[in-house]
Amino acid sequence: MDEVFVINLGDNNVAVVVSDDNKGGQEFKSTFNGLVCESEYERFSYLMGTDAYGEACKENDFLYLSIKDGIGKEYIRCTIDEELLQAMELEHGFLFMQLPKLFTPEYIKEHLYGKDLCDIEIWMNDTEAQYDLPKYSLGGYLMCFFTEEEIEKVRNGSWNS
Hints:
The protein is α/β, with parallel strands linked by helices. The protein has one domain (5-156). It is built from 5 helices and 8 strands. Strands 1, 2, 3, 4, 5, 6, 7 and 8 form an 8-stranded mixed beta sheet that branches. Strand 4 (52-59) and strand 5 form a beta hairpin. The longest helix is centred in the last third of the chain and has 14 residues, at 117-130.
């Protein structure tokens, strides 16, 4: 797995998966690792939408998901279909994971579809043991997804209006 891919986990839950050797993913992780907020999960931290977020972009009739920082620097871009985009808009967010490249999109879909975040944490624990990966090497970020209008509100400081 060297590409970035977006998968439907079911029930309007979406995951963006990047291989651990992806340069944009590596830069993203090193930039934002210290800016995370604790969550109710062991393996998933929140990233504030003012620090980093996902947004949809359309270019040459292709729909993309772009993961950017608060000033608009793009770290990751991948194609996304309309159904996944609508799920992200409905939930206002997504799960971002950087995983070893040995996990193919098919493998991820097979093992994570229909699972909630607690189940995904269990899968991560089991997978680290099965593949002899360092403990807590698998994890992710809970990120905001913003529409164009929401991005403007955040930038203008008028989120609540």
